[in-house]
């Protein structure tokens, strides 16, 4: 059983998958969505869940630095509930504070151009969310 990690934004969803043993996370893709138009990419997510036999999803929960949950956190909670209802698999909310910042730092250290970073930042954040969860389980 694989585990999927998601970094949910208002315009994109970064997607990562674990290996079958649940040890490592690899970036898969960045899905374009449009929250304002209620286009959330659930059909595409469903195809990935089926194709890779995903048994659990870890959704990044962006908390404020003081631990409270703001509008982006509420959007992630909605996304997790929808995944559970639509696909019948558990969705775990995982504190993702600073994962995007950490992903940006890794890509900067790799000397990646701004244009290339923009294309992979969400996928990289999804990897960091999922790997954090996997590390906590092993």
UniProtKB/TrEMBL annotation:
It comes from Mesobacillus jeotgali. Belongs to the YqgF HJR family. It comes from the Bacteria. Its main location: cytoplasm. Could be a nuclease involved in processing of the 5'-end of pre-16S rRNA. This is Putative pre-16S rRNA nuclease. It is an enzyme of class 3 (hydrolase). Residues 1-103 form the YqgF/RNase H-like domain. Its EC number is 3.1.-.-. Keywords: Cytoplasm, Hydrolase, Nuclease, Ribosome biogenesis. SMART domains: YqgFc. It is found in: Cytoplasm.
